From TrEMBL:
It holds the Pfam family Ribosomal_S2. GO terms for cellular component: mitochondrial inner membrane; mitochondrial small ribosomal subunit. The lineage of its organism: Eukaryota, Metazoa, Ecdysozoa, Arthropoda, Chelicerata. Required for mitoribosome formation and stability, and mitochondrial translation. Belongs to the universal ribosomal protein uS2 family. InterPro entries: Ribosomal_uS2, Ribosomal_uS2_bac/mit/plastid, Ribosomal_uS2_CS, Ribosomal_uS2_flav_dom_sf. Keywords: Mitochondrion, Ribonucleoprotein, Ribosomal protein. SUPFAM superfamilies: Ribosomal protein S2. It is found in: Mitochondrion. One of its GO terms (biological process) is translation. This is Small ribosomal subunit protein uS2m.
Amino acid sequence: MHLSRNCQFIFSRNIKSLSSIHQVQNSLTPKKSEEISTTLEMPEPLDHPDFFQVSNLFTVEDLFNARVHFGHTMGTLNEHMKQFILGSRLETLIFDLDQTAELLREALNFTAHIAFRGGIIIFIARYKQNAYLIEKTALECEEYSHTREWRLGTFTDPNRFGMMTRLPDLAIFLNTLDSVFETHTAVIECNKLLIPSVGIVDTNCFPNFITYPVPGNDDTPQAIELYCKLFKEAILRGKAKRKEFIEKYQHIIEQ
C-alpha cells in the first residue's frame, strides 16, 4: 500500500491528539460561547489543505538540482522503499521525484501546523558532516537539535533527565539510520511514545517507523541544505501565523 494514501487521516489524527498526548498549547482555539462575535470568526487552519502555503516553497526541479533523486546502489535497497523508486542508472537507484515532492509537502504542512500550535520541534541526525548545518538551522528557527550519538533511553527513560522534562511534539530526522542498515534509536523511541516524526528515508532505510516519510537522498550536502531550508521556512511560517492570530483574534481567545 502506498504510504501517502492514509496521510490525510494520520495528519488529522496527530494534530488533534497532540494537545492531550504531548500537551501542545491550544490557546489559539476559541471557547464556545454565545457571546463570540459573528462578524469576525476565527478561521480553522485544519479546514484548509495548505493553510501556510508550503506547496510553493519548492519545485521538482529544485529537488533535482539538489540531487535528491540519487539513492544508494541496487544491492542495498530496502524492499519497503521499492514503491518510491523510478528506476536505476549505472547501478544507482533513482527516486521518483513526483512522489517525493508530494510527501515532502505533506511533511512541511504538518511541521507548520505543529509550530503554529506552539509545539516543540527537534531536528535529529547522525552524520557528523551535516551537524553544523542542522544545529544552525534549529537555532535560526528557535527550536532544538541533536546531532551526536544518541544515548539509549533519552526519551523513554525518565530517570535519565527527570520526570519534568517535556518531550518534543515533533521529531524531524534528516537521516533515519545509525549505520548502513540500523534504524536510528530515536526513531524507535518516538514510536514507543507516539511522538510524530518526519524523516528523510533513503533507499536503504525502513520507512514504516516514520509518521511522514520523505523518500530522498539523505547524505549529499546539497540535499541536506535544501531540507534544512524548507523545514526552517515551514516552522517560521507557522510561528508567524500564530503571532498574527494572537494579535488579530485576542478578544476571541480570551473569552
